[in-house]
Amino acid sequence: MRPLFRTLLPLALSALILAPQPADARQMQCAARERVLDVLQDRLDQTVRARGLAGQTVMELFVGTDSGDWTLTVTLPNGMTCLLANGQGFTATDDMLAARGAPV
Question: Which domain of life does the UniProt lineage start with (predicted)?
């Protein structure tokens, strides 16, 4: 799990930094954390596979138990959780990215 986390977290954080920031959270799909977790865990059968911090926000990757569906969320300091992205076909990998300058 650690190699997956090391690979996905920098990519996800880069996407957050480079993505246009909304004027306020009402433009994003946000709700109280408990409500979002109820939907992801109970209705969609997704569990947390990776988690990381970006300042005072928490980024989490949820993945479906059998479906391969995934959801990327960010939880703000005020307790609101916002959906950043979702998709299908998630595959976990233990491969590490080659070190910079290392032969492929």
Answer: Bacteria
pLDDT digits (tens, 9 = 90+) for 77-90: 999 999 999 999 99
17-20 long-range contacts, Cβ below 8 Å, gap at least 24? Answer: 19/84
Sorted by sequence, the CB contacts under 8 Å of residue 94 that are 6+ apart come out as 3, 4
3-state secondary structure (DSSP) of residue 3 = helix
CA atoms of 58 and 81, how far apart (whole Å): 9
Cα(61)–Cα(16) distance, integer angstroms: 13
Name the DSSP class of 65. Answer: T
pTM: 0.66
How far apart CA 40 and CA 23 sit, in angstroms, is: 26
DSSP state letter for 45: -
